[in-house]
Design goal:
Oligomer: single chain
Strand content: under 5%
Shape: globular
Bound molecules: Phenylacetyl coenzyme A
Largest sheet: 2 strands, antiparallel
Number of strands: 2
Radius of gyration: 21 Å
Structural class: mainly alpha
Distance between the termini: 29 Å
Helix content: 55-70%
Order of helices and strands: HHHHHHHHHHEEHHH
Number of helices: 13
């Protein structure tokens, strides 16, 4: 999936503006940019930022659901949840590998996450309070992730686009397992249905925030769209998600917690109420319900894994010595 031989230094362009024009022409012609191709430093930085934030989100995203593996209500549910959380770990690893093709190391990126310099998705700073939250995370969080990530399969940067193909297939299984949990709860007792509604009430607005700030406040959208890293704006994807999800909630017999939600027949879209962007900014600044807990759990897991890294290095050194 990834290249084997990477440039370690930026390839000098004979004429910067000519190189930029040629680069943009390749993007406009839908050519894929590969790791050893010349690319503007800002394109490289944007990709490292987005891919690493994405990788960190997958890794931290294992935690809210991981909490429920030992409490899953049946063997079948436990096996599915275990597989899902394991997939998320795998997604993090593909994405770190894709970022490494741009000249950073996984160690640097992990360090940035652990020392608090790096961002991960706001959505993973909310608690999973009941089993219905596991259904809702699969249904809505993975549903939002699919909406955002399917277009990334056509991203101009080859290694990221290729990694996204498998990730999206797995996200699709995750979304179905979540929806199926919700469908089971909604067909169950009144208490189970109330639990499903409560989870939807708590997750709906944070999920809409996952798509990022409104277009007018999105610093990176214009350049990322020009470079075909992003194919749709944050608001376009948010609208597509709402349009796809409202009928699913109706099918489940659940109420979306938005008194302003209405269908605009002329436009063919569900119009939704105002998002509380102060909450989004508070969560990004570290003030979400679980920011501290998540980072503490992640740091602890990293420390607990030290012996595995040491053992792998010792094994590799032995293999090298044997070969020599
Ligand atoms: N949370 O100018 P824009 C998943 C930041 S994976 C935190 O619009 P951009 C799978 C943004 O980084 C979920 N920060 O930025 C799963 C930027 O900050 P910076 C993650 C956010 O990059 C499911 C600033 O705001 N998915 O769920 C958020 O053009 C279940 C300005 O924003 C991805 O990462 C946010 N929600 O667009 C796992 C997909 N939104 O860097 C476990 C790839 C924005 O200047 C369980 N990423 N920011 O300091 C993307 O598509 C884009 O990066 C966006 C943001 C759309 C997230």
């Amino acid at each position: 999936m990834y290249t084997q031989a990477l440039n370690t230094t930026e390839v000098a362009a004979p004429d910067e503006s000519e190189a930029l024009d040629r680069f943009q022409a390749r993007i406009d012609a839908e050519a894929r940019i590969e790791p050893n191709d010349w690319m503007p430093p800002a394109y490289r930085r944007t990709l490292i930022r987005q891919i690493s934030q994405h990788a960190h989100s997958e890794i931290v995203g294992m935690l809210p659901e991981g909490n429920w593996i030992t409490r899953a209500p049946s063997l079948r549910r436990k096996a599915a949840l275990l597989a899902k959380v394991q997939d998320e770990g795998g997604h993090g690893l593909y994405l770190y590998a894709a970022a490494e093709t741009l000249g950073v190391t996984r160690e640097e990126l992990v360090e940035q996450l652990l020392d608090g310099r790096a961002k991960y998705s706001s959505i993973f700073n909310y608690p999973t309070l009941s089993w219905a939250d596991i259904g809702t995370v699969g249904w809505l969080v993975d549903g939002a992730a699919i909406m955002n990530q399917i277009p990334l399969c056509r991203c101009s940067y080859g290694p990221y686009a290729r990694a996204m193909i498998r990730i999206c297939k797995e996200e699709s299984f995750h979304q179905r397992q979540g929806f199926e949990i919700m469908a089971t709860l909604c067909q169950g007792s009144a208490e189970q249905k109330a639990m499903a509604q409560d989870a939807l009430d708590r997750w709906w607005w944070p999920v809409l925030m996952m798509f990022g700030p409104p277009d007018a406040d999105s610093q990176h959208s214009d350049t990322s769209m020009r470079w075909k890293i992003k194919r749709f704006t944050n608001d376009e994807l948010r609208q597509k998600f709402v349009d796809a999800t409202v009928p699913q909630a109706q099918y489940l017999g659940l109420t979306i917690p938005d008194p302003d939600l209405r269908f605009d027949a002329a436009e063919g879209h569900w119009v939704f109420g105002k998002i509380d962007w102060t909450e989004f900014r508070r969560v990004l600044a570290g003030g979400g319900k679980c920011n501290r807990e998540r980072m503490a759990a992640r740091r602890q897991a990293h420390e607990d894994g030290a012996w595995v890294r040491a053992a792998a290095l010792a094994h590799a050194a032995k293999q090298r010595a044997k070969a020599a």
